[in-house]
Design a protein that fits this description.
signal, 490 residues, 67% helix, ammonia transport, transport, two-stranded antiparallel ribbon, 16 helices, single chain, 2 domains, Ammonium transporter fold, transmembrane helix, NH4_transpt_AmtB-like_dom
C-alpha cells in the first residue's frame, strides 16, 4: 500500500467508528438503570460506613500509639536499673493482649450476653462470616454497622491500655513470667467482664444508663485498682527512699515526651469512641472537652504543688495533665466545656493528694498510676452524675448540680462501687495466686544487681552505667543512707 494513502484510511476508519458510537451510545446509556432514592440511599450508607471505618481505624492507631507514651513515661520516671524491664513489659503486653483478646476477651466483652454479666460467643472471632460482618452489621454487643474486624481492633487498643497501666505501679520488682501471666488474665477476664457490663448493649450497667463514654471506669479505674493491689502485694522496690520522699526520676525528658504522646493519643481514645463521623458536632465537643480537661489538670497540679514546695515541679505537672485526661474521659460527650474545666482542675488537685495518700500507706507506686488512673477514673465517672448536661446524656437526665436529682448520680455511684469491688477482689485472687506459685516478685538476687541485669542481661545505658556500679551503689547506701532498703531507688 502506498504510504501516502495510509493517513486517508485511518481518517475513514475513525469517521466510521465515530458514527457507530453516535448511533448506539444513547441506547447503551438508556439501558442503564436510572438512579432511585433507594439506590442513592444505599450508596450514601456505603460511603458513610467507609468514612466511619477510616475514622475508627485511624483513632485506633492513635490509641495503640499510647503504648509508646506509657513506655516513655515509665522509662523516664523509673530508676535506670529498671528501664529495660519496663520497656519490655510495655511492649510484650501488647503482644500478649492481642492474642488473648482475639481468643477470649473480645467474646466475653461483646459476645451474646448471659444475664448482662458475661459474653458467651464470638470467641476467636469464629462466628463471624469471612467478611467480618454480621447480617445486621457490627457485632452482637455493639450498635454499629462497622465491620467487626474494625471494631475488634479498636477495642483491642483499649484492652492493651488497661494492662499497661498496671505495669507502671508494679515496675522494678515484678517477675517477668508473672507479668506475662497477669497481662493474659486481665485481657481474658477481669477487663472484658467490666467492658461487658458497661459497653455491651445488653450489659446490666448499660441497661441502667450508666455513663462512661470512653473508659474512665472501664479502662482507668480497672487498671488503677489492679495496679495498686499488685503494688501492695509486691512490696516496695529495693532500696527505695524513705516514705514521703519520692525517688528521683531517671530521665525527665523521656517522661515529658511520654506524656505528650499520651495526650496526643487521647484524641484517638475519646473522639474515636464516637465510632463514626455522622455527628461532627459531637466529635468537636469531645475533642474540646478532652483538651480543656488536660490543660486544667496540668495547671491545677503545678500550682498546687508550687504552693506546697515553692518549686515548679515538672513531674506533678505531667501527672496533672494525665489526671485531667482520665477524669474527662467518662463525661467528654456528656458535659459542657465549663464542666470539663472543673473536672480537670479537680483531677490535678486529686493526683497530688493521691500520691501523698499512697505514700502514707507505704505502698510503692513508682509512676503514681493509682493516683492518676484509679482515683481520677472514679472521680470522672462520678462527675457525670453531678455535671451531666441533659441535652447530652444518654437518658436525657441532668446531673445533680444541674437540677436533675439523684437518678443519674445514683447509677454512677452504683457502677463505680460494683467495678471497684469486682476489680479489687479479682486482683487479689490473681496476684495472690502468682505470689503463691513464686511468680509475683522477682528473685531477691535482682534486688542486688538490678532487675535489668538479672532478668534481661542489659542496661538502658550500657556505656554509661555498668552493672558493677549498681553493686557499688548498694554498698555505699547500706553504710551511709538509711531508708526502706539498701539503694536510693530505681
Amino acid at each position: 500500500m502506498n504510504k501516502r494513502t495510509r493517513p486517508l484510511y485511518r481518517l475513514i476508519a475513525l469517521a466510521i467508528g465515530s458514527m457507530v458510537f453516535a448511533i448506539f451510545a444513547p441506547t447503551v446509556v438508556q439501558a442503564a438503570d436510572p438512579p432511585t432514592i433507594q439506590s442513592l440511599a444505599e450508596t450514601t450508607t456505603k460511603l458513610q460506613i467507609s468514612i466511619d471505618t477510616t475514622w475508627v481505624l485511624l483513632t485506633g492507631f492513635l490509641v495503640f500509639f499510647m503504648q509508646t507514651g506509657f513506655s516513655m513515661l515509665e522509662a523516664g520516671l523509673l530508676r535506670q536499673r529498671g528501664v529495660v524491664n519496663a520497656l519490655l513489659e510495655n511492649f510484650i503486653d501488647a503482644a500478649v493482649t492481642i492474642l488473648i483478646w482475639w481468643g477470649v476477651g473480645f467474646g466475653i466483652a461483646f459476645g451474646t450476653s448471659a444475664g448482662g454479666f458475661i459474653g458467651t460467643d464470638t470467641f476467636f472471632l469464629s462466628q463471624l462470616p469471612t467478611d467480618g460482618a454480621f447480617p445486621n452489621g457490627g457485632v452482637p454487643g455493639i450498635a454499629s454497622q462497622l465491620n467487626a474486624y474494625t471494631l475488634f481492633f479498636f477495642q483491642f487498643a483499649f484492652a492493651a491500655t488497661a494492662s499497661t497501666i498496671t505495669t507502671g505501679s508494679m515496675a522494678g520488682r515484678t517477675d517477668f513470667i508473672g507479668d506475662l501471666i497477669y497481662s493474659a488474665v486481665m485481657a481474658a477476664f477481669s477487663y472484658p467482664i467490666i467492658v461487658h457490663w458497661v459497653w455491651n448493649a445488653d450489659g446490666w450497667l448499660a441497661k441502667m444508663s450508666f455513663h462512661d463514654f470512653a473508659g474512665s471506669s472501664v479502662v482507668h479505674t480497672v487498671g488503677g485498682w489492679t495496679a495498686i493491689v499488685g503494688a501492695y502485694l509486691l512490696g516496695p522496690r529495693p532500696g527505695r527512699t524513705p516514705w514521703g520522699q519520692i525517688p528521683p526520676a531517671h530521665n525527665l525528658g523521656l517522661a515529658a515526651l511520654g506524656t505528650m504522646i499520651l495526650w496526643f493519643g487521647w484524641y484517638g481514645f475519646n473522639p474515636g469512641s464516637t465510632l463514626g463521623t455522622a455527628n461532627p458536632g459531637l466529635i468537636g465537643l469531645v475533642t474540646l472537652n478532652t483538651t480543656l480537661g488536660a490543660g486544667a489538670g496540668a495547671l491545677s497540679a503545678i500550682f498546687y504543688q508550687y504552693y506546697r514546695s515553692r518549686k515548679w515541679d515538672l513531674v506533678y505537672c505531667l501527672n496533672g495533665s494525665l489526671a485531667g485526661l482520665v477524669g474527662i474521659t467518662a463525661g467528654c460527650a456528656f458535659v459542657a466545656p465549663w464542666a470539663a474545666v472543673l473536672i480537670g482542675l479537680t483531677g490535678g488537685i486529686l493526683v497530688v493528694l493521691g500520691i501523698d495518700f499512697i505514700e502514707s500507706m507505704h505502698i510503692d507506686d513508682p509512676v503514681g498510676a493509682f493516683a492518676v488512673h484509679g482515683i481520677n477514673g472514679m472521680m470522672g465517672t462520678l462527675a457525670v452524675g453531678f455535671l451531666g448536661q441533659p441535652e447530652l446524656t444518654l437518658n436525657k437526665k441532668a446531673g445533680l448540680l444541674l437540677g436533675g436529682g439523684f437518678d443519674l448520680l445514683g447509677v454512677q455511684i452504683l457502677g463505680v462501687v460494683a467495678i471497684t469491688i469486682f476489680t479489687v477482689a479479682f486482683a487479689f485472687l490473681m496476684f495472690g495466686g502468682l505470689k503463691a506459685i513464686g511468680h509475683l516478685r522477682v528473685d531477691s538476687e535482682a534486688d542486688k544487681i538490678g532487675i535489668d541485669a538479672y532478668e534481661h542481661g542489659a542496661t538502658v545505658w550500657p556505656d554509661v552505667y555498668a552493672v558493677e556500679q549498681f553493686v557499688e551503689e548498694e554498698e555505699k547506701h547500706r553504710s551511709h543512707k538509711p531508708g526502706v532498703g539498701a539503694l536510693e531507688g530505681e
